[in-house]
């Protein structure tokens, strides 16, 4: 065997064979490491290490720039829907659905509002407003708690109520936006709502959004025409074109239906139990 040939360690006939060249290089490197002296960190002349550590613990000089603030107070508003709704069976409506927040990464004041009203004909409609405290509980989820005020109005009939609110809002796996929430009304009625939506980007600007909402009651709520169980369901589909991310006109369809005994209550009162609407609107963000 050529003693100058460098080979990797190997097993030959059950024995570990290392070339003399490899062994010599390893020994030389080990000697260099052992011989290298330990170097103290550089200090200003006449300063001890203790004095340097005390100086490092002090605040930076006033002439230094301010550090980057990574916990700014910011604000955001999303007007998901400002739309005109028309159908064959019900009066035309102007409707809105918006939310926004102000706060930092850990604490936010979150508000939400939605409603619909008839611009012509009978003066009737409904609206609600929520004022919430929101705190992140995971990278994609907020816990929200606060108050909701809602009212409905119509010819000879108007009512309102206030509820405590406890819910979640966030992004589930596969990018579904979910809002499960519970309401405890001033009369002790327990209600629930689940809203789900999903954005399908056909192109960089054209997006299709399926959206659904279902409401449920833990018991009968006679004053509001609700029965125990599932009360109503909405299935919505909107196609928007994002001229900018913050500005997108859209067109779509809404299908609204009452469920279970709630539908029977509406029928006995002479009201329709379902409706298909054509909608036109604008989505705004700022």
Describe the structure.
- The N and C termini lie far apart (78 Å).
- The model is unreliable at 1-8 and 10-14 (pLDDT under 50).
- The protein is mainly beta.
- The protein is elongated.
- It is built from 3 helices and 15 strands.
Helices and strands, with pairings:
Blueprint: E1 10-12, E2 15-17, H1 20-35, H2 49-56, E3 74-86, E4 93-103, E5 108-117, E6 125-138, E7 141-154, E8 157-171, E9 177-185, E10 190-197, E11 200-201, E12 206-217, E13 229-241, E14 247-258, H3 260-268, E15 274-285
Antiparallel strand pairs: 1-2, 3-4, 3-15, 4-5, 5-6, 6-7, 7-8, 8-9, 9-10, 10-12, 11-12, 12-13, 13-14, 14-15
Quick gist of this model?
With 286 residues, the protein is mostly beta strands.
Major β-sheet strand ordering: 3-4-5-6-7-8-9-10-12-13-14-15
Biggest sheet architecture: 12 strands, antiparallel, barrel
Beta-strand share of residues: over 45%
Through-space gap between termini: 78 Å
Count of DSSP helices? 3
Ranges where pLDDT stays below 50 over 5 or more residues in a row are 1-8, 10-14
Could you say which overall geometry the principal axes of the C-alpha atoms support?
elongated
Order of helices and strands: EEHHEEEEEEEEEEEEHE
Overall residue-averaged pLDDT value: 87
Number of DSSP strand runs: 15
Radius of gyration, in Å, reads: 33 Å
Percent helix: 10-25%
Classification by helices and strands: mainly beta
């Amino acid at each position: 065997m050529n003693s100058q040939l460098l080979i990797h360690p190997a097993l030959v006939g059950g024995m570990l064979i290392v070339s003399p060249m490899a062994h010599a290089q390893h020994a030389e490197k080990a000697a260099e490491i052992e011989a290298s002296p330990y170097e103290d960190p550089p200090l200003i002349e006449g300063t001890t290490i203790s004095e340097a550590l005390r100086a490092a613990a002090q605040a930076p000089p006033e002439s230094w720039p301010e550090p980057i603030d990574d916990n700014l107070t910011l604000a955001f508003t999303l007007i998901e829907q400002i739309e005109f709704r028309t159908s064959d069976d019900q009066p035309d409506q102007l409707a809105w659905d918006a939310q926004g927040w102000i706060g930092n990464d850990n604490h936010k004041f979150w508000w939400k509002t939605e409603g619909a009203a008839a611009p012509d004909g009978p003066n009737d409609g409904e609206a609600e407003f929520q004022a919430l405290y929101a705190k992140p509980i995971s990278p994609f989820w907020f816990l929200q708690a606060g108050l909701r005020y809602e009212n409905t109005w119509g010819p000879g009939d108007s009512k309102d109520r206030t509820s405590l609110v406890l819910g979640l809002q966030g992004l589930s796996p596969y990018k579904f936006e979910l809002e499960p929430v519970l309401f405890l009304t001033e009369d002790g009625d327990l209600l629930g709502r689940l809203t789900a939506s999903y954005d399908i980007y056909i192109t960089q600007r054209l997006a299709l959004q399926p959206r659904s909402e279902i409401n449920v009651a833990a018991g009968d709520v006679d004053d509001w025409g609700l029965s125990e169980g599932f009360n109503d369901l909405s299935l919505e589909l909107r196609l928007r074109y994002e001229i900018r991310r913050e500005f997108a006109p859209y067109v779509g369809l809404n299908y609204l239906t009452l469920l279970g005994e709630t539908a029977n209550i509406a029928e006995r009162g002479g009201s329709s139990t379902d409706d298909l609407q054509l909608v036109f609107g604008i989505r705004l963000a700022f």
